[in-house]
Each structure stands twice: as C-alpha cells, then as structure tokens.
Amino acid sequence: MVTTKEILSSPEPILPGHAACAGCSSSLGLRYALKALGENVIMTIPACCTSVWQGPYPKSAITVPVLNIAFAAAASSASGVSAALEAKGKTDTTVLAWAGDGGSVDIGLATISGAAERNDNMIYVTYSNESYSNTGVQKSGATPPGARTTTTPFGRIGSPKNIALIMWTHHLPYVATACTSYPRDFIGKLRKAQQMKGFKFIYLLAPCAVGWRFPAEKTIEVGKLAVETGAHILWEAVDGDIELSPLSKKYRDPAKRKPLEEYLKYQGRYKGISKELVEAYQKYIDYQWSIITSLADIKK
Amino acid sequence: MTVSNNRPVSLGHEKPMTLIISGNHAAAYAAKMARVEVVAAYPITPSTGCIEKVSEFVDSGKMGAKYIKVESEHSAAGALIGASATGARTFSSTSSHGLLYMAELVWWAALARLPTVMSIVNRELAPAWSIWAQTQDSMGLRDSGCIQYYCKNVQEVFDTVLMAYKVGENEQVYMPSLVCQDAFILSHTSAPVDMPSQAEVDDFLPPYTPKHFILDPKHPVTHSNLSYPSHFREKRQNIMESTHRAKQIIKDVCADYKKRFGRFHGDLIETYGIDKKTKHIIVSHSSIAEEIEVTVDILKEKGYDVGLLRLRVLRPFPDEEIREACKGAETIHFIERAPSYGYKGVIAIDTMAALYEGDNHPKPFHHIEGLSGMDVTAEYVADLIEKDLASLKR
Fold first, then answer.
1. Which of A253, A297, B7, B387 is the most buried (most CB within 10 A)?
2. CATH topology for B17-261?
C-alpha cells in the first residue's frame, strides 16, 4: 500500500488557485487520483463540480490534458480517446473519466453502461456528493434516504441506485468503492485498476460541505464516519469477485459500527428530518450490507 | 505533436475502379479510402447500410479503423469528439432521430472545432413514423457551425465524403461536416460509382495532423473549460470567420478534385441552364434537384427562359453565388423538402435573405414538395412552374 509520505512528497497535480469551495473533497479526490495515476493521463470531465473548480479559461488547475464534455458524455468521449490512442499505438496513456454522481447514475447511466459492456479501456471514477451540488444541491439518483436537498425539502423519500453494483453486473475487470477520507485505500485501488486493461469503475464517496451542510473543516471526519457507521461500504471486485476492503471488514458486524446518528449529526441536510426517514436510511444501509456480504460469498 | 506513420490499412483499391453501389455503401467506401482511424456508430434506418458495410470492412481486415459499437447516437458523437480531440480522423453515419438524439454533441463537435465527417441519410421525423426522405433532420442543425453538403446522386456522396475531410481538416476551417443524401432515393439505390486508386486518394488526402489542439500528456491543455464573455466572444468570432473562409476552401478543394479525378458536382452551388440573364430560376437541393434538371429541359423546350440553381452547401451559405446566379431573374421558384413551421421552406428563407442584400429581387414562389420521400417528378415540377408563371399574367 502507498505510504502517506509518498502521497505527500509526489508532485502536486492540482495547481493552487482553483475554484473549489472550502472543504471540497472532489478536488482532494482528483488530487489523489492524479498522484496515483501519474502524468501520462488524459481526462474527460462532463458537467459537474470539477468542470467549475478546474478554473476558467485561459487558466486551468489541472496539469494533465482535459476534455470537458457534455453531461452524459464522460464515458463515450473517453471511449473515443481510448480508441484513438489505440489507433495511434499510444497504449501507455491512462484514460480517466471523472464524473459526478448525477452525470453517472442518472443522465450518463446509459453511456457508462455502454462503455462498460464494450469493456472500453479507461478508469471511470464517479465522485459522489450524493446530489447535484454544482447546480445548487438538488436530489440525484445517489441521494440517500432522508437527505434534504433543494428538490427534496422535507427529506428524500425512496432509495438511491447502487451504481457500483450496477457496474459490477457488467462483468468488469475491476469495480471498487472508495472515500476521499481514505487516500491510501483510494490510491491503492486506482493503481490496481491502472494495471488492468478494460473498463475499471470506482465509486468515490466525496462529502460536500456545502450540500450536506457541515463545517468545511469536518470533510475528512464526515467521510470517516460514513465508513465507521457502515453507511458507505468499502469493497472491491477483481474480475467479479467481491471482497470487503480492510477498512470496512470489521463493520460487517453491526455491533462494531458507530450509530448512524454520529454520521448524521454533523450534516445540516438531516436536521429536523423525521425519525421514519432516518430509520429508512438505517434499513437501507443494513440491506446494502446483506447484499454485499452475500455477493462476497460468491466466487467465480 | 507526432502522428504515427502507420496509417490504418485500406485494402482492395490498388487501381481505380467502378462499382455499382448504394449511397450508404458509397459513403462507407469513401470513409475506408480516407483511412479513417476511429468509427463510432449506432444503427438506424436508412443509414444502417453504411455502418454495416464499415463493419464488414473492419472485421474482414480491409479497413484498419477502430470501430466503437456504441449504445446510442449520443455516444457515437461523444466518441467521435474524444477520438478527434486525440488527433484521429473519425467517421459516423446516422439519420433522422439518430441525428437529433446526438444533436447536443454535434454542436459540441462544431464548437470544439473537431473536423469529423458524418454521412447523414436525410429521413423524416416522427410522429407519425416515416422512414422516407426529408431534410429537416440535418437542416435543423443549420446554425451549429457544421458544414452541410446535400448530394444529388451516389457518385457525389462518395466524392463529397473525401472532399469533406479535406475541407474540414484545413487549418483555416477546422469544422465538422455533414454529408447528406436522401433516404432510399440515394441511400438504397445502386448506381455506378467511379473510385480513384488508394494511392491517388492518399495523395489528395494526407493524414490528419491537427495544429489547433490535441489531447497529449506531453503538452497538456484543458479544453473547453469555463470562459468569460470576452474570451467566449473571441472563440465564437473565430468560428464565424472560419466558416466564412470555408467557402473559398470548398471551392479550392472542389477544383482540385476536378483536376485530379475529372469530377465536379458544383462547389457551393451547381447551376443547370443558367446564364446571367435567365429569367426564371428554380432553386432546389438534394436528389430532387437532379430530377429538376429534366424539368429545365422540358420547360426550355417549351420556350421558357428557365434554369436550375442547386444548393449544394447549406452552410456556409453561398449568398454571393446566389446573387450572381440570380442577377437577371424575374422569378425564383423554391422546390424543397424542408419546411420551417410557421414560416417557409428552410432554403427559401436563407435564399431570400441573400437576395435582399443584392439589387435584384425576383418574385418568389414557394413549394414544399417530396415530404416523406413522396415522388417529385420532372413533369410535376414543370407543371408547378408553368402555373407559377401563369399566375403572373392574371
């Protein structure tokens, strides 16, 4: 596993002066991602927070080539980049599609599914702040039960899509979940994915101080609590075989998880939300654990 | 930036040849001979024949392109953008709802200055379902910046695909192109197509070597990030100027093509039976225009001073050329497939605006004909023109 020293001492791929909000974890996430993948990377970025915080023309905070593209087209344009690189024999370049949850689980779902089914050569990272944060925090298909957004003012009713599992059903060489609070885990997963050919998918939980309404300095803590309460399960699947990541392994036992309340208490989006909706969230989490642990028992 | 010398293979064209093929296949042959590097396409009637032929070429090893079998037209255009931005020559084909579904990214390709070429089979839009010819699908993208060619026959489809790459990839232009043909009337009708040898095509159309930008980790650029109004205006101004410059580039490329291969279908416009004094001018487009050449013969026989102006390129718009051709015209008769609901035919709108800027203002007659591929015969059009002219005498 990568050391903290190595992360800190490697070249900074995100330049100072970018336009991310205070406490933004998507900018942290991309910093880690590019530290993991190196300089020989081409990125596609659809409409999402990163399309804004990369900074306005004629400057850019991102040190690798970036193709900004329409909302639903992160995966399809990355497929094109990948095919062109192959046509030109430049197969050592890593193609990174970097999209938010709305651009992945909602408007871009068909596009990712297509690229995954074709096993086009790229790493696709969905950094999820569990809402359309860039447009002012509306409900997305990744918004958890009970969460307040500007389009669910009394709390989200219903359950989010589990995009990582949806991608897992595509028979991919690599699928994983990660969280910006655990850079060593995330970087390790990216490097593993980089060694593989084909479509690799990582769902990165990226807590959003503005959207979730917590103090900017709590970003890392909130992300950790997501894992420690079991709300976000860290796992990976190499060639289909699901395995809990070491950080999440012990939370297989519900007794070892911190109460969900610990995670929600920092988040203004859960303030005043009905007990029923919070219970619905807990039920959703427990069910997700049943699914993941059951699937982890299946080996190819 | 470096471009690999290992160009995609294109086998089977060692010598010039004539094949009897459909418009769809003509576009596929041209894409193959252009040594396209990346194809991304999705099936839709009636353009499917083109991508089926490309699949056959690729899977049999005769065409060295990477072919991405995308899950939608939107993704077809997305893949073309990614590949073109990485420096590859790209190709797709679609029609009707497929083109509208990818419309967002057709605009994106244009505004990103990526010179991809697509073979468009012009087909009606639903509802009601119809698979037959009509040009609203591509004409609805008139303002996107894409160069739009409307072909009158299968030979012109083949030649225009090759010319479209040469024009679009010119560093004075850098814009995508739509090479349009009528559903079934051209897409599914076989006709003899003369093709040069591969060596002659290679000489005419060298590899795509973009100078404006390319996604290259050795020279990182961020493309299309947020731009404030002053920079934005500059970018759009550049597109305006480039698309205007494209008029001369199209003329030059068509002249060069004629010199090399002996074929000329007009450049921005094609005229038939027109001199500077022609009194009655029929303006039309696509395959209908070829039929109207016969109309002109019929009417001339009857003593009418009539000629045909075929709009070959809708964008950039040949306004000066139209004014020149219509210098002596007293009447102008539009025979076109595409209406702009709430006004007139798409071509009439643009043509009349062009004439307004000149000194001669012929009286217009408007005819929307051939909707849903309905047959438009030479005799029928002759009758329309005679009635137009008779109405003047009343």
1. B7
2. Rossmann fold (3.40.50)
